[in-house]
Amino acid sequence: MRRFASAIALALVFGACANGSSKDASPTTRRSTTTKAAPSTTASTTTTLAAPPAPNGCDASSLKRVEPRRDRTKYTIDATLDLAANQVRGSLRALFTPDKATDRIVMRLWPNGPTTAAGGGRMDLGDATLDGRPVALSLVNATTAVAATGPIPATTAQRFAVNFVVTLPRDVDERLSRVGTTVRLGSWLPLLPWEPGAGWTLDPPTTSNAEASTSIHADFDVHLVTPPGLTVLASGTDRGDRTWSASAVPDWAASIGDFTVARGLAGTVPVVVGVDKTLNDSAAMYLSAVTPALTELARRYGAYPWPAYTLAITPKLKGGIEYPGHVMQGPGTNSRTLSHEIAHQWFYALVGSDQGRDPWIDEGLASWAEAQVETTYRSFLAKPIPAGGAGRMGEAMPYWDQRHGAYYRSVYVQPVHALGALGVSTAAVDCALARFVAANAYRVAVPSSVVDALKTVAPNAEAVIARFGGQRLRAAP
Ligand SMILES: [Zn+2]
Predict the structure, then answer these.
(1) Which of 74, 236, 256, 460 might form a disulfide with 95, Cβ 3.0–4.6 angstroms?
(2) Which ranges constitute the DSSP H helices of 351-413?
(3) Which fold has domain 73-203?
(4) pLDDT at position 21, please?
(5) Ligand 1 center from residue 20 Cα (angstroms)
(6) Alpha helices in 104-211 (DSSP H)
(7) Is the pLDDT of residue 14 over 60?
């Protein structure tokens, strides 16, 4: 494939990095993993979603969820993982229907983000076309490219296509990484960050982990050719023949490696856990923790939204990284990390948010859910919030780039304090969050979306959230 102009081929290198807004820190507690699983590599666990209703009478399963937008982008991706070349080469085609007029198409190039670039990773773009006509590309910054298309009218479907080459960073603690023949493919596609009602989302790159900072729901059909003998765990439905489909999801990710696999069910949801064979972790032990956590979270916040849940445990990764229907975790994370990442299936994957602009929404609500499932709510409340973060949970990532040490307590823990300060029961808060999920599913929520839901159980919600710094209460676009 022809490389794009050197401006795009040259990945800019950013400064030092810390945990980004959706890569979660290492666990502080662990479930027992001292008992190795039975020699069998396949386990089967069945749990039920028919749990009793929450004590306040709020039945999350009875809440009607809004439908995905019908004009969401439809992606078709053909890609090949070439380990010898240390690359993924492919094409992305997008059937894109903007809800208002524009004059360009924007792509995010997260492999050029700081931590992946520092490890040798990068994304190069090749030829691009709009409805078959070649279009010129230029680079706004390392992680943002623009195709100069000329006027695109509103509500008219456009066929955009672009070729890309991802060079894999090696041994980095990131969502995009290669360790031996094991590969994490996260935030690796040149997706179009069009937010209905708002237009192109051009958050500045952060010095923290680069990621798809806005979760915009789209359909994905992916054909991914991988070396023989390796297992692929990914988002969506595995249709066989190296193809996957995922509907109304904000991204598509995969982990590829030589895995020990355990399979089970959480209610009717198939769960697949793969543990890299270079690790001592037990796939069956992870599976036995995933199924009850997934079932419990579905009881609180409504049905699990995707056709399956896949979890890959791979080396050189601390904590976990969530994608819709697929989670990446490092070794030794059969812990609070596990329930936290499952909670992100509701808070990030189902209800999207701009993780660069409003990191407290998905991280704060996932932390709340984690605290309920792990029964660690009291310990969350006991954690002090550091100076510089107290009262500022609504700050965007550029603010936290300058305050890495305060980030976790301020953005993950502080929203739990805020919800606790509403003065209602935890069951009532859960009820409000179930309503938040139902009302904002498949959409990009903003702080006022959270407040509106909380007001259904706590009339003082706006003042309380403002007191903790979620005061940037923008209306939904
Ligand atoms: Zn998180």
Answers:
(1) 74
(2) 359-373, 377-382, 397-401, 404-407
(3) Immunoglobulin-like (2.60.40)
(4) 35
(5) 9
(6) 114-118
(7) no
The domains of the chain are located at: 37-68+251-350, 73-203, 351-477
Complete DSSP assignment for 64-127: PPPPPPTT--EEEEEEEEETTTTEEEEEEEEEE--SS-EEEEEEE-GGGSHHHHHTT-EEEEEE
* CATH of the structural domain 37-68+251-350, one choice from 3.30.420.100, 1.10.3720.10, 3.30.470.20, 3.30.2010.30: 3.30.2010.30
Residue 25 alpha carbon to ligand 1 centre in Å:
8
Radius of gyration in angstroms for the set of CA atoms belonging to the chain, rounded to a whole number: 21
Instruction: Compute, in angstroms, the gap from residue 340 CA to the centroid of ligand 1.
Output: 6
- Distance from the CA of 228 to the center of ligand 1, in angstroms? 33
Kindly give the distance from the C-alpha atom of residue 128 to the centroid of ligand 1, in angstroms, as a whole number.
34
Average model confidence (pLDDT) for the chain?
A: 87
CA of 133 to the centre of ligand 1 (A): 41
Task: Enumerate the β-bridge partners of residue 257.
Answer: 231
Ligand 1 centroid, distance to 102 Cα (angstroms): 33
Distance from the alpha carbon of residue 320 to the mean position of ligand 1, in angstroms: 8
The Å distance, Cα 96 to ligand 1 centre, comes to: 29
Name the phi and psi angles at 438, rounded to 5. Answer: -65, -40
Cα 37 to chain centroid, rounded: 29
Taking the centre of ligand 1 as the mean of its atom positions, its distance from the CA of residue 202, in whole angstroms, is 22
Cα of 455 to ligand 1 centre, how many Å? Answer: 24
Better pLDDT: 74 or 54: 74
407 CA to middle of ligand 1, Å?
A: 12
CA-based angle 465:466:468, to the nearest 5?
70
Specify the range with the lowest mean pLDDT, choosing from 264-273, 324-333, 352-361, 373-382: 352-361
Cα(360) to centroid(ligand 1), Å = 10
What is the distance in A from the centroid of ligand 1 to the CA of 1?
A: 37
For ligand 1, the distance from its centroid to the CA atom of residue 408, given in whole angstroms, is 10
The neighbouring-strand residues paired with 49 are: none
Answer yes or no: is pLDDT of 200 > 90: yes
Higher pLDDT, 274 or 34: 274
Given the structure tokens 């305060």, which residue do they identify? 406
- Ligand 1 mean position to 271 CA, how many Å? 20
**Residue 155 identity:** T
Q: Which CATH architecture has domain 351-477?
A: Orthogonal Bundle (1.10)
Per-residue model confidence as pLDDT tens digits over 245-281? 999 999 999 999 999 999 999 999 999 999 999 999 9
Amino acid (one-letter) located at 307: P
